[in-house]
């Protein structure tokens, strides 16, 4: 509690200092998860078929013995955030590391592997863009956000190009001024690309031979196409609103008379 003169007690400030340090060092969590993926630690534990000791893990990683303490510290941090579990077996009482449901999602070659998403969210360009939030917020320039967004799209095209192949027409719902459209149209010049956004957003924008802008409301209707792209859209809306949007997406691709797809790029 604050005192009458607006100052805080020393004990409260010490607690606040500890909290501030905890917040500032929280960047280690995602960096440590990326470290585990880069070294394929979830795969190593999975293939070991049982909880693995520190010495066994270090041996499998083929890292110098001098780094064993660092590996142990990082594994304990990851266990603290429930990425791995630390277990002990009675026969020797040694610490062993086991997978949790979360790290199971990082095992390669499974239909639920999310390693690519974790790597994507920790790419240097995307992470560094958040170092410029103050400048971006105070000014009119959208360069930082646009560069980060462009990197996202180019990464998706490189890693998941097959998702866009074979599509004759694509509707980009909430596509704004067409930053994503230009990148995808460059990669797929035969694709008919439609950007749907609010009338005031697309007013005055000029398309090209394969790119057009349509003013509308995604809650009312979505232009028909072979596929619909929702990039950074759904996280802004409630579950009920997302259901409305997805139903309109279904109607947009169902009307083509053949199987379509909804491509979602988002974060929860």
UniProtKB/TrEMBL annotation:
Per its UniProt entry, which superkingdom is the organism in?
A: Eukaryota
| Residue span, O-methyltransferase dimerisation domain | 22-108
UniProt keyword annotations, A-Z = Methyltransferase, S-adenosyl-L-methionine, Transferase
A Gene Ontology biological process term: isoflavonoid biosynthetic process
**Keyword Transcription regulation appears in the UniProt entry:** no
Residue ranges of domain O-methyltransferase C-terminal in the record: 146-266
**GO terms of molecular function:** O-methyltransferase activity; protein dimerization activity; S-adenosylmethionine-dependent methyltransferase activity
SUPFAM superfamilies found in the cross-reference section: S-adenosyl-L-methionine-dependent methyltransferases, Winged helix' DNA-binding domain
**Matching InterPro entries, A to Z?**
COMT-like, COMT_C, COMT_dimerisation, SAM-dependent_MTases_sf, WH-like_DNA-bd_sf, WH_DNA-bd_sf
Q: How is the subunit organization of this protein annotated in UniProt?
A: Homodimer.
- Name this protein carries in UniProt: O-methyltransferase domain-containing protein
Native source organism of the sequence: Trifolium subterraneum
> What are the top taxonomic ranks of the organism?
Eukaryota, Viridiplantae, Streptophyta, Embryophyta, Tracheophyta
């Amino acid at each position: 509690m604050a005192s009458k003169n607006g100052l805080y007690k020393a004990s409260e400030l010490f607690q606040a200092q500890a909290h501030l340090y905890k917040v500032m060092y929280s960047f280690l969590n995602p960096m440590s998860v990326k470290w585990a993926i880069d070294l394929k630690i979830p795969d190593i534990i999975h293939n070991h078929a049982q909880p693995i000791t520190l010495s066994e893990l270090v041996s499998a990683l083929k890292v110098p013995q001098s780094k064993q303490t660092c590996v142990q510290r990082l594994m304990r941090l990851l266990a603290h955030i429930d990425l791995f579990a630390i277990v002990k077996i009675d026969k020797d009482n040694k610490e062993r590391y086991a997978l949790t449901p979360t790290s199971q999602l990082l095992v390669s070659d499974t239909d639920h592997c999310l390693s690519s998403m974790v790597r994507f969210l920790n790419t240097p360009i995307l992470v560094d863009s958040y170092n410029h939030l103050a400048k971006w917020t105070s000014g009119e320039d959208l360069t930082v956000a646009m560069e980060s967004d462009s990197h996202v799209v180019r990464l998706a095209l490189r890693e998941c190009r097959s998702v866009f192949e074979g599509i004759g027409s694509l509707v980009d719902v909430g596509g704004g001024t067409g930053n994503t459209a230009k990148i995808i149209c460059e990669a797929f010049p035969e694709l008919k690309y439609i950007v749907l956004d609010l009338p005031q957003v697309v007013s005055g924008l000029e398309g090209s031979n394969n790119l057009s802008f349509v003013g509308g409301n995604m809650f009312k209707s979505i232009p028909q196409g072979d596929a619909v792209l929702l990039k950074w859209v759904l996280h802004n809306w409630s579950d009920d609103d997302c259901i409305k949007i997805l139903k309109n997406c279904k109607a947009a691709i169902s009307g083509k008379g053949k199987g379509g797809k909804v491509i979602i790029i988002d974060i929860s």
